[in-house]
């Protein structure tokens, strides 16, 4: 195996809740309140939708907010990869990747290991340059059972929720995560930081109409059936773990320039609708203060 070449699940397309558009000569991120399933081919208007997008959209009520999925692996961390990541905005190459405790940083001397203090206090992370970057690999195609569609996100809500769900489902199913009937679900909420504006994040739930007991029973039955055919899920997980570990920074040769445009814009530190509107609110507050001052001045003159 070529060292430094990370082996990730074969990607057939991507699942997104946003994208990028060109405005004033720059690629800027856009938001949406539904899923879009795209292929790996781009046209003049952006990524071309995958045929599965139309298929699942026909089963929805107009907007695609639920997608049936199957996990490729039993170990949660093999399905969801998430690290603090600092990209070079010019080249799109990852410069620093950390877990909040330690990081691997690309330098002129090679890849070095340093403490990772998290983006809040790291001097390299100013201006939203470093964020949690998650990639969830799921299978949604019956034609390729080892192929995946990747959902990328820099949203804390999505990463936190997906990590919790994967670990919980793995635990209750006795480590049979790949056999559970699951679905991606788009959820919305308002927070203090969003100032009542809805923000959207991705959750992982059981398929509609399936209870946790039924899901565990189905997972046990599927696991027994797969074993009877000689299917070795344990070996598949081991192969995935080995492939991920083949690269020091843990990144594939993907469209990282596009990732930077969509998730690491220069004048924004948000994605997945987890938009911090503090600067806009401050502008409104300052305007209100100025207006109040003018009113008081007028009142005093009168």
Characteristic key phrases:
302 residues, alpha+beta, twelve-stranded mixed sheet, 7 helices, 12 strands, globular, Hydrolase or metal-binding protein, Gp3-like
Instruction: Tell me the number of helical segments per DSSP (H or I, 4 or more residues long).
Output: 7
User: Could you say which overall geometry the principal axes of the C-alpha atoms support?
Assistant: globular
Main sheet? 12 strands, mixed
Order of helices and strands: EEEHEHEEEEEEHEEHHHH
The total of beta strands comes to: 12
Q: Give the mean pLDDT.
A: 83
- Which stretches of 5+ consecutive residues score pLDDT under 50? 268-291
Question: Could you explain the architecture of this structure?
Answer:
The protein has 302 residues and is an alpha+beta fold. It has a domain at 11-81 and 139-255. It is built from seven helices and twelve strands. Strands 1, 2, 3, 4, 5, 6, 7, 8, 9, 10, 11 and 12 form a twelve-stranded mixed beta sheet that branches. The longest helix is centred in the last third of the chain and has 24 residues, at 278-301.
Concise overview:
The protein has seven helices and twelve strands. With 302 residues, the chain is of the alpha+beta class.
Question: Secondary-structure blueprint of this entry?
Answer:
Layout: E1 11-23, E2 26-43, E3 46-49, H1 51-58, E4 66-71, H2 76-79, E5 80-87, E6 94-98, E7 102-107, E8 110-115, E9 130-139, E10 148-153, H3 156-172, E11 182-189, E12 199-206, H4 212-228, H5 233-244, H6 256-263, H7 278-301
Parallel strand pairs: 1-10
Antiparallel strand pairs: 1-2, 2-3, 4-9, 4-11, 5-6, 5-9, 6-7, 7-8, 9-10, 11-12
Protein name: Hydrolase or metal-binding protein
Organism: Psychrobacter pasteurii
